[in-house]
Amino acid sequence: MKKIIIASLLYFGLAHAQVAGTPYILQSVPSGNYVLDAVSQTPSIAVSVRKLSKNYTGYCIQVRRSNDGATRDIGFDANGNLDTATLLSFIGANDGYVRIWYDQSGNGKNLTQITSIYQPKIVMAGTLVTSNGQPFIAFYAVPSSTVYNHMDVSGASIAVNAQVIVVNKFGSITGSDGFLLGDYTYFYWHSRPSTNLFHSSFTSSSVYNGTLYINGVATSPSVAPFHTSLKTISLAPQIPNTGTEWNVIGRDRTSHHTSNGGGYSEIISFPVSITTNEREQIEFNQKNYFNL
């Protein structure tokens, strides 16, 4: 009997990991392979609407319910997808806003927004917000208004970016705006809204002269379009620690806010270079998962 009890306790300890701050909620240790498992380098930040690494045992997002302001951490299902069943059950017929988008890199670089009017949406009137059939964090505000959606990087800025891979889109309504990544001080990732992903005059030289792939296809940053359908944007800046800094998504300084239904599904940034094969594997995985 003693052996059985010990074996059961060992199994329980190996099969589950308790998340700090949630004494009564257990997150299952994931099984299977995830997109970052075969990558040799650890990212500076990795946020997504799905699980990215078998080593990550935390939550995906923290959401706020519109009718009463209650919040809840939402994890993943057994397949590593966002636990939409729990999410929709909690939100009910209301709107669901993203308060925290948890960093899966282990570096604690969560994307956060504690001010309600600035929070992006994940559920609208009880219906999951999606893009290409997968959950999507939507920035729905009107351009250049005083009320816009954005999420800040916890702690210090992401100052060194050797390889950035982002799954996002900009709003399709006339007058939409937004930068791929933003900053409260700089405009290193400056776009030319409605025409170009990067601005020839204002984008930093490190970004503008970087190596860019869109959905896995090599593209010059000088001709990359301001995309209004979901894409995987993979950019290796020319100089990783010069002119690549960012600390917010959804806004840049006091204008150029992502708006009119634009938003994000996944953001991964590495502080050092990854191999061509690793980049291609990530892009291929993203194209399949997000139906690009």
From TrEMBL:
InterPro entries: A-L-arabinofuranosidase_B_cat (IPR015289), ConA-like_dom_sf (IPR013320). Residues 1-17 form the signal peptide. Residues 39-116 form the Alpha-L-arabinofuranosidase B catalytic domain. Keywords: Signal. The keyword Signal applies. The keyword Signal applies. This is Alpha-L-arabinofuranosidase B catalytic domain-containing protein. It comes from Flavobacterium keumense.
